[in-house]
Amino acid sequence: MKFLVLIGYAMVFLSSFGMSDLQTFRHNYGKVVSDKMLCEKMLKDLEKAKNNSPIYLGYLGAYQTIWANHVFNPLEKLNTFRKGKKNIEQAINQQPKNVELRFIRFSVQKKAPSFLGYRSHLKEDEEFIRKNRDAISSEIVNKNIDALLKD
Predict the structure, then answer these.
(1) SS (H, E, C) the chain
(2) What percent of the chain has a predicted confidence (pLDDT) above 70?
């Protein structure tokens, strides 16, 4: 019996460990625009996680698009942004009704320069987020959404 309880605790610990990583990515999302070193660390952590879930792919794409701001070479900026955009779109194709993924895309499109041509879902995503945001259980994500919608 004690063995089963021990296994139960281990499973809870391991599942919460993965969630804390996701919470870290969520928590730092707004900070990395102005913090190059933090952005680089988050990117490395996401790549190391090798988690193929749509939410991790979405955050990887978001961090890649933000990383483009920190890169000096214009060609590298464009390539990095495109790679991030591709990952965000791939994540949304896998889970089109995921409110957090739509928030990620909306935040990137809202802040992206118009000459990059990545603004086609702004209105659609904003409406979707406003309509379905009660599906978000993360307090951090809700705060990020509030800040973005006020902006």
Answers:
(1) CHHHHHHHHHHHHHHHHHHHHHHHHHHHCCCCCCCHHHHHHHHHHHHHHCCCCHHHHHHHHHHHHHHHHHCCCHHHHHHHHHHHHHHHHHHHHHCCCCHHHHHHHHHHHHHCCHHHCCCCCHHHHHHHHHHHHHHCCCHHHHHHHHHHHHC
(2) 87
End-to-end CA distance of the chain: 54
Say how far apart CA 74 and CA 106 lie, in whole Å.
Answer: 24
32 with 63: CB under 8 angstroms? yes
Residue 32 has pLDDT above 80, yes or no: yes
- Rounded to an integer, what distance in angstroms lies between the CA atom of residue 85 and that of residue 62? 7
pTM given for the model: 0.85
Distance CA 150, CA 128 (A): 16
Residue type, 142: N
**Closest by Cα among 103, 144, 104, 142 to 126:** 103
